[in-house]
Amino acid sequence: MSVVGLDFGNDTCYISVARQGGIETIANDYSLRATPSYVAFGEKSRTMGVAAKSGQMTQVKRTFFGFKKLLGRKFDDPAAESEMSRVPFEVRKGERGLVYPINYAGKNVQLSAEQLTAALFTKLKETAEIALTTKVNDVVVSVPSYFTDAERRALLDSAKMSGLNVLKLMNDTTATALAYGIYKQDLPESDKPSRNVVFVDCGHTGTQVAAASFNKGKLSMLASSNTNSGGRVFDDEICKYFIKDFGERYKLNVPENKKATLKLLTEAEKLKKLMSANTNKIPLNIECFMEDKDVKGSMDRAMFEELIAPYLSDIERAMRECLENSKLKLEDVHSVEIVGGSSRIPSIKSMIEKVFGKVPSTTLNADEAVSRGCALQCAILSPTFKVREFSVTDIQPYPIKLVWEGQAGAEGAGGAPGEMEVFPRFHQVPFSKMLTFYKSDTFQVRGEYTAEVPYPDRHIGLFEIGDVRPAPEGGNQKVKVKVRVNPNGIFGISSASLVEKHEVEEEVPEEMETDTKEEEGKKGEEENKEAKQTEESKPEEDKMETGDNGKKDEKKEVKMVKKKKIVNKTIDLPISQRVQGQLSQEKLQTAVQEEMSMANQDKNEADRLTAKNSVEEYIYDIRGKLCEELEEFMVEEERNKFQMELEDAENWLYEDGEYAEKAEYNTKLTQLKTKGEACKKRKYESDERPGAMNQFGQCMQLAQKAVDSFKAGDEKFNHLDGVEVEKVQKAIDEKQDWFNRMCADIQKLQKTQDPPVLSSQFIQEKESFWHMASNILNKPKPKVEPPPPPPAEEKAEEKMETPSDNTAASAEAAPADSTTLNGAKSAEMDVD
Fold this sequence. Notes:
alpha+beta; Nucleotidyltransferase, domain 5; Substrate Binding Domain Of DNAk, Chain A, domain 1; 4 domains; 25% strand; extended
């Protein structure tokens, strides 16, 4: 099972994976960790990520970005209109709502923001699969904490289109907090029950502030606050300044030129990063900016902070609001962690110190913290990955209420309209509540946000509970409805049921009345008779003593009678819903098929271009070598003819064959290689053949030398079998004859001719010959072991152990030819 976390940002994305060694942020096909959130459409295929952004200037109107902010929104949404004014491509109202019109693969198609997101997810999925060398299905995806129900549902639809199974949508700040908690390992200090940390995420499109509490492996989010002030509005302010400056000095109307605007935005972002690290004035230079004019400008940090002062105040308000909502005092806050691309701006760090009275910490990687937290959550949810136990409790940022209408003809309070706040602001997530309604017919309830939300409509969805019918007596039924905010932060009704009372008949046992005296008399006689028989047959067994002097319990006769009984039966009720932002099942399946079709088209086009590039590369490679190292290996006439074929093939590539199919390119490559590879092979054989021939000749010389030594009676080889040595001699003669004939043929060979024998054949002949000859000629001599020493007698051993006491006796017992020195036994003496 894959363990992947995706940080889906409006400008860039990051992918992290959990492995045995820990959490790792993986690089894309350009060896970069950041993948731009861009999707571009060519004539026959799409490009995503780095390739799409790098080619943006060449096809401005076919490269899409910023679609995250449009998920789940309609064309007339004020926020959508604001986003559409920022982009250089067309966005219009279509059948599916807000769509991006494009001509793709010869067809006019209209793509939604969800489909563009799905295309980007397809790219991220492919990148993760290459890094993990396995299929990726289950993921945890980040989402801004301020995203509403409709936006979250739309994001889930996008993931389904790309074939991803989202285990959880995780808030950005919660993911950061989880990554921080795991990184710190044992968070609680010995003298404190818990640790409170504030997280400030200064992202591209906004700033999110959240307070969290850590306590013995438990993470609880307390409160959050958000603002639209982020890196993007900072770039906008820089652009506005230079648009006015260039208009006055160069008389240029920059906003009317989309390419010039994009160039300025790119340079503004670079300038912002440089000013974060320098207080000096930083120059801005753009060549051929607009109307063939080069423009110049400059800005310092003080001017930049003056431009963004209103947005900094907005961020400060969000920080104070989060502190107030969390009900934490300044002394309760242990630390303030800062992440996000704009967290490097010094004025934001100064503001954090001003609000919280603490210097902001940079424990985590500012760009990768969110994706790492998502990967950790995916590891926790994965059944195959073992991590330290860590529970996460998130919060619902907006209060939610349930509204229901009155029922015509209903009696009692159950028929009156009403509403109820079921989940207040900052209520823990996930959570379920059971509500009871008294209804006699199918009814509807609406989910709505109680307070203002960053979405034009507070309405969440309409839920209908069906199959409700009156009670047998005609009154209302008790209907239990379970409302839930799931781990993705999405509100819904998970179940509904009612309890019906049914009267059923069942047979139950009942005791029968009998004449007790008569039965007791008969029963006593039978018991005495049985006891007497038992005592006579088994006299050795002990009799059991009982409290009733041996009398058994009386058995009463029973009969089955029918009685009525009330039984409660729970009936599950069907639920239908119409919610904001989510596609119907039919439309979702259509979108899934469209994404699969486009993904296959991308793959086929990539294979086609690879085949085309192979032909182009081969033309350049072989043509350059024909006039250099391969010149003497092809006849001049054939070489000139082949060069003409290469030129024709090159012209075909850029003219008629520019959009040819993969099979045509493969056929063209095969035709060119027929001549080119033959020439390359002659060159290769000319280089490799001398070495192969030399090795084979040396092997035969060594073998012949060993055979001659054997025949000369060399002691080194006298253990060899003569028959086997003769076998080697015969092989030498045969191989030498073949070798001489091949050498004679090769001497007559021209470099432009194909060789009669390949260098690989010389190597093969050498290997087979040497394998046979070496096993015979290198056979080791048999080892000759010395005879064991004769056993010594026990008495003699005793004499050897004490030679100093019995020196004379030892001398007398020694043989006549033995010698001794100073009474000691000679080294040549054997003691018997």
